[in-house]
Amino acid sequence: MDVAPAAGGDIQRIDNGVIFTALGGLGALAGQEVERDDAVVTVTDGDGRVLGAWGDPTAQRRAELHNLAPWSSWSEECTGTNGMGTSLAVSGPVTVTGPEHWCEAFHQWACAGISIRDVVTGSPVASINISRWNASLSKSVPSWLTKAVACIEQEIYRRAVYEADKVASEFRKKCAQVSGPFMAMDRGGNLIAANEAAIKLLGLTDDPPIVAAAIEPAERWTPDISGLPDVVRWAMDQAQGTEQWSGYACLPVSPGEDATPLTMLPVVDSNHVMGMLCILGVQEGEPYESNAEAAVSPLPRRIIGMRNDRLVLLAPSEIRYAEADRNIVWLITERGRIQAATRGLDNVERLLTPYGFRRVHRRFLVNLRRVAELERGIKGELFLIMDPRVREVVPVSRRHAPELRRLLGV
Predict the structure, then answer these.
(1) Could you tell me which residue ranges the HTH LytTR-type domain spans (predicted)?
(2) Given pLDDT bands bounded at 50, 70 and 90, which one contains residue 219?
(3) What b/e sequence results for 109-118 when a residue is b if at least 16 CB atoms lie within 10 Å of its CB, and e otherwise?
(4) Among residues 213, 161, 176, 174, which one has the least CA distance to residue 191?
(5) Do 133 and 34 lie in a common domain?
(6) Measured between alpha carbons, how far is 169 from 80 in angstroms, rounded to an integer?
(7) I need a surface site. Which of 27, 154, 303, 312 has the fewest CB within 10 A?
(8) CA-to-CA distance for 54 and 41, rounded, in angstroms?
(9) What is the DSSP letter of 300?
(10) Which of 57, 25, 49, 30 is CA-nearest to residue 41?
(11) 385 within 8 A of 391, measured Cβ to Cβ
C-alpha cells in the first residue's frame, strides 16, 4: 500500500464544531512554524479523516501524492501504523518514524501525533500531527504537542461540566415524580446523581456516598452493571435530536437476581444529547437489541499498551490483572506496569473477556489462569494472590465473589 484511502461518512459532528475550529487555528499557526523545516501539520477528526493540512508547500505536495491531505483516512484500520491513526488509539504523544509506518510510501517520513479525547467517554475527538520528510523531528515535538492541545482539552472539560450541570438540574426536577430507583448519567454512562433507592439497589453502602450532583468528571462513579455502557451508547445514538425519545433494556443490576428493566430518557439541549436519566424497574419506549455482529467480530491477538512514547504489544497471557485509575487502565504484566492504550475498564474488559479475564471488583479485572492463591479476610472478604513472590493481592467485591468461586471451582 502506498496511499491512504479516501475518507467516507460525515467528517464531524456539529457539537464538536468549536473544538475543530480551535484545532484548525492551532494547525494553521503550527504550519507557519514548521514550514522552514520541510514539514506538514495535519488535523483529523476522531476517525482519522484529515480535515486540514498546513506547512511547507513542497512537503505538502509530496504528502498529497500519497493522500496525506484533506478528505483521506489515516486511521490505523485504514492505513496501518502512522502518527495520526496510532495517536487515536493511545493517550499522549506518539512518534512513528521511517519503516515503523505500515504505508511504504512514508518510510522516508518522521511523524508525531497526539489525540484530543472526550473527558466523559474517553473516546478520541480529533488529532494533530507533524510530519517531516527525509529528516528526524525535533525531540521537543512531543512536549509541544502535549502543551498545544491543552487549551482544546480545557474547552472539552468546560463542556463536560456544563453538560453535567444541565443533567443534574433535570434529575432534580424529575426526582419528585419518580418513586423507585432513579439515577442520572453522563454520555459515558458514569453516574452524576442517584436517589436513595438507586444507591441501595446498586449496593453502594460500602462505597463513598454519591453526592447530590457529581459535576466534576473525576467525581463520577461507574455503575458495575454488565452491558450498561453499550446500552448508554445505543440510547445516545437513538435519541439524537429527539427530545421525546425513550428506550429500555433489561440488565443484571443486582447480583444473583433476574435482569432489571432500565428506561432511558435523554437530556437534550440545542439538539445535543448531554446525558441520560435512568428509571430502574420501569420498561418504556424502544427496546434495546444487542448487536450480534459485535459478538462474532475478529478478536485482537495482541493487547496494545503504552510505555513512554512506545507502543507495547502484549499477549493476553502476559497480563495478570488490570487496574483502573479513573479512566486510565494499568496492565500488570511480566514486563512491569504498563498503561493500556484503551481507556476505561469496561472497554478493556470487552477486549480481554475472550481470553479468560473476569471482573472481580469495579476497579479490577483478573486473568483467571494467573490466580495463584485465594485468601479470606477476617470478615469473610476474598482476596486473590496473583504473584506469591511479591504478595500481589487483588480484592474481590461481595457482588462478584459467588461467580468467581464458581469459575474457580472453590
Answers:
(1) 303-410
(2) confident
(3) bbbbbbbbbb
(4) 213
(5) yes
(6) 44
(7) 154
(8) 5
(9) P
(10) 30
(11) yes
Final residue of a structural domain among 287, 313, 336: 287
Answer yes or no: is pLDDT of 139 > 90.
Answer: no
Same domain? 336 vs 229: no
Burial class (CB in 10 A: 0-12, 13-18, 19+), 134: exposed
Does position 78 have pLDDT exceeding 50, yes or no? yes
DSSP state of 251: E
| 114/178 Cα distance (integer angstroms) | 44
- Measured between alpha carbons, how far is 368 from 370 in angstroms, rounded to an integer? 5
Angle between helices 150-175 and 17-34 (to 10 degrees): 170
Q: Which amino acid is at 264?
A: M
25 and 136 in a single domain? The answer is yes
d(CA 145, CA 148): 5
Q: Which domain holds residue 63?
A: 14-148
Q: Does the pLDDT of residue 288 top 90, yes or no?
A: yes
In a domain, 8, yes or no: no
CATH number for the domain that contains residue 213: 3.30.450.20
Structure confidence at residue 296 (pLDDT): 42
pLDDT one-digit tens code per residue, 161-199: 999 999 999 999 999 899 899 999 999 888 999 998 888
* pLDDT band at 33; cut points 50, 70, 90: low
Q: What is the CATH number of the domain that holds 369?
A: 2.40.50.1020
The residue from 235, 264, 287 where one domain ends is: 287
Residues 221 and 105 in one domain: no
Domain contains 153: no
HSE value, Cβ hemisphere, 13 Å, CA-based, for 188:
25
CA-to-CA distance for 80 and 103, rounded, in angstroms?
7
The pTM is what? Answer: 0.66
- Does residue 400 lie in a domain region? yes
